[in-house]
Amino acid sequence: MTEQILHLSNKTVSNPAEYGPLRERGPLFRASIEGLESPVWFVAGFDDCKEILHDSRFIRDQSKLPGAEGPSLTDEMLAQVGMPQEYFKYFGLLGLSDGEEHTRMRNVVARAFTARRVNALRPSLEKNAADIYAALAEKKEGDLVSELGYPLTSAAICELMGVEAADVPLLQGWIMEFVSYDTERLVPAITNIVEYYKDLIARRRAEPTDDLISELAKPGGPDQDLLSDDVIIAIFMLLTSTGIAPPAHFLGQALLALLTHPEELEKLRAQPELLARRAVPELIRHATSVPTGGPLYAAEDFEFRGCPVKTGDAVIPSLVGVNHDPRQFDDPLKLDLARDLGPGVGHLSFGSGAHYCTGAALAQLETEVVINTFLLQNRTMELAVDPAELQYFDVPGKGTALGALPVRF
Ligand code: HEM
């Protein structure tokens, strides 16, 4: 019998309205996703996906599979965007490990996200959001992805790591080149970022301060056996690649959702106490700005809910699909800022289980501050284009992302 493989474009992967018939195909179905060479199992049901994310028979580290050979899907994605091989070691630090190895490294990374460090970012996030609002309002127009999302989230990551204030604009410039997905701009940018971090680690080793870099680089500190310079750089690349683009594009999508649902925005303006508790989680569910989770691999042959999974098969969670599953959410395509997502997180936009997003609290804080500044405290901003004209770009193998959000005041 020939295997039925469904071809999914990046646009389909990102469109919640297309998932009805896809979910009917079963808990897992075979799909080839635009930008990936090999077909995968795709999962789009909430319960099915949650179970997979908590099932230790599905692992992240493809090199641990019996008879593993060939590039991993992550290496395929890096090669697709033209990343030189010598830099591959700086990517996939947490996303590609399992079990004890993952837990130990994740605990090191989690030092960046103590409640103390995240809450300490609130005053500068509020100041940055207010300054950006004032500058855009004065020129009466702007793009909320490049002029708000990226500057705000990259400044927060730089502050979190301990990049010196005077160097922040320099690093922000390289980060914008790095996330351009254009090989000619990406390669010099990653070289500059890596060299900058190498130099900063050396300086903090010599003269430690109170920042994360000093804490990680401190001679004789805990976990020193793990923390070579390459690993510290990989931690910063992890925070750079996960902590800037996803929240920057998400902030654009959240503001777009509010500007195109004026009745929901009015509801929030009338009940601002909904913001942190209900509206932010609902916007994160509704927008699902990271359309797919990282690939998992079956470590053995088994049947998952009736589907014959073979050792080495890749499974990709469709976070868009699961967050709009009508078996989990009433009227799932609707944005309802008073929606009660129930106990716990309630959606899967940040994943679930061992690889749950470490930056979730920061992402929520950034969203709360931005909505408060741009739509509650100030009320004159509106979309400058028809939503149908907005441009989305492909993220190979992962769906699409909002390129720009032009507004006027
Ligand atoms: C709205 C914004 C964000 C979204 C939608 C998002 C989404 C996700 C998702 C879906 C995962 C899990 C992927 C998987 O299971 O393979 C993840 C993991 C991760 N995220 Fe986020 N994220 C966001 C913001 C952030 C921020 C601000 C940071 C850091 C400052 C961050 C750091 C991480 C890290 C380090 C991981 C890997 C955790 C691990 O593998 O153990 N994220 N994120």
TrEMBL record:
The highest taxon in the source lineage is Bacteria
The record's InterPro entries line, in alphabetical order, gives:
Cyt_P450, Cyt_P450_B, Cyt_P450_sf
- For this protein, what is any one GO molecular function term? monooxygenase activity
Which family does the entry's similarity section mention? Belongs to the cytochrome P450 family.
Indicate what this protein is called per its UniProt record: Cytochrome P450
